[in-house]
What we know:
alpha/beta; Rossmann fold; eight-stranded mixed beta sheet; 11 helices; globular
Amino acid sequence: MEASSFSLATELLEIAERKRRSTSAPAAAAVPNPSDVLQQFPSLPVSIPPNSRLVAVGEEESLGAEKFRFLAVKLRQMRQSRPLKKVLITSTIPQEGKSTVAANLACTLARRKQHKTLLIEGDLRRPTLAQKFGLGRIPGLSEWLRGDTETMNIYLLETLGLWILPAGSAPENPLELMQSGKLSPTMEQLTAWFDWIIIDSPPVLPLADTSMWARLADGVLLVTRKSITEKQQLKRGLEAIERGKLLGALVNGSTDTAHSDYYQRYGPAASSPEFPLSKK
C-alpha cells in the first residue's frame, strides 16, 4: 500500500472510531428544573388555629410581624457575605417558642415568591409545626427516612407559597432513624430545590438530635424566652453550638416595647460573644 493510501485509511479509521464513541457514550443527564420538580408535590389547604401565634400570617401589621420581617432582612444581608440557605432554629430547653419562631420566619421568607422556602419539622419527638397550620396527621420526614414512601412527603401550603416537610408519625428511636444514612443526601437534594430551608429542631441541651441537624445546617439561631431561660442554661446552650455556625440569639416573649415584643438581642456571633439576655 502506498504511503498516501495508508495515511488516508488511517484517518478514515480514526473518524469511524470517534463516531462510534460519540454514539455509544451515554448522554449527560439533564439537570431538572427545581420548579418542575416541586410540581410533583401535592398542595394542602391551610386552616390556622386561633392559638397558632402565626403573626406573620394573621397579624401582618403587628409589631411582632414587623420584627420577623426585620429578621428576614438580616438573614438576607448575612447571605451576601457567607453561604446561608439552611437555617436551624433551636432553643436551650423546651417551651421557649422555637417552633413559633421557625414557622413565622418561614412564612415571612416565603412572601418573596421568587425565593422558594421549605419549612422542615425536624423535631421528631414532639412535633408541633403541622398543628400550627391545621394540617393534622400526615406522612412526613419519619416515613421518608424509614423508606415507607417512594417520594419525599413535601406539601405546598396554599395561599402561603410555603412548602413544608412535616415530621410525620413519631418514631420509636428518632436518633437512630436520623443516623440511618438517608438524612444527609436528603438535605443535599433539598438544598438544590429550595432557596431557603428553615429547620425546627429539638432543644439543644437535653437531646443529641440537634447536633445532627446543626452539622447539616449553614447557620443556627438560638431562641430563649424571658423569665423562662436561666443564664446558666443559655451559657450551656451557646457552648453546645459550633461558634462558626451560630448566627445569633433571640429573646422571645419580651415585654420591653422599647426593644420589641419578640427580640431584645440579635446579631452575628463574632460581634456578641456573651449574648446577654438584655442590653442592660
